[in-house]
Specification:
185 residues; six-stranded antiparallel sheet; flat; Elong-fact-P_C; cytoplasm; translation elongation factor activity; protein biosynthesis; elongation factor
């Protein structure tokens, strides 16, 4: 059990039978009435974000999440196969479970699997990945007055806004948290 006064960003908790990670929290002490903690929580089972308010000092269950290193092997239709790096066990996840992550996954990529009491909740991507540009229009001279950008499609199918000097074949570093261009590799 953990007190809501000890909330930290990234902490995983169990509330009403669901597993949540704390995205944001705020301790509020109004002039009149009891103090409370306002929080924004992300459900790890379905990806929904909810806002919950707890009384100050209230205790809730702490969820012990397991992170294991796995390799992404291949996609077969709607299923994506991963292999545990230690035990070499293979398992599959559906496209619905990996909606956002599919924008960054390449074959043979190492990621971490998130599980709770044997139930696989999803995967943790690295903060940035290197992806090759497969399609973009050429930059036009004279359009660079104030940080102009253009659209580029990378090898996973993700469309990213990039500076005009980026060409097809360039390898980019993409931030996986926001899906934005960081720099050239």
């Amino acid at each position: 059990m953990i007190s809501v006064n000890d909330f930290k960003t990234g902490l995983t908790v169990e509330v009403d039978g669901d597993i949540f990670t704390v995205l944001d929290f705020q301790h509020v002490k109004p002039g009149k009435g009891a103090a409370f903690v306002r929080s924004k929580l992300k459900n790890l089972r379905n990806g929904n974000t909810v806002e919950k308010t707890f009384r100050a000092g209230e205790t809730i269950g702490r969820a012990q999440i397991d992170n294991r290193g796995v390799s992404y092997l291949y996609a077969s239709g709607d299923e994506h196969t991963f292999m545990d790096n230690e035990t070499y066990d293979q398992f599959t996840l559906t496209s619905d479970q990996l909606e956002w992550e599919l924008n960054f996954l390449k074959e043979n990529m190492n990621v971490n699997i998130i599980s709770y009491k044997g139930e696989i909740l999803g995967i943790n991507l690295p903060n940035s990945v290197e992806l090759k540009v497969i399609e973009t229009e050429p930059g036009i001279k004279g359009n660079t007055a104030t940080g102009a950008t253009k659209n580029a499609k990378v090898e996973t199918g993700l469309n990213v806004q990039v500076p005009l000097f980026i060409n097809e074949g360039d390898v980019l570093i993409i931030d996986t948290r926001e899906g934005k261009y960081s720099s050239r590799a």
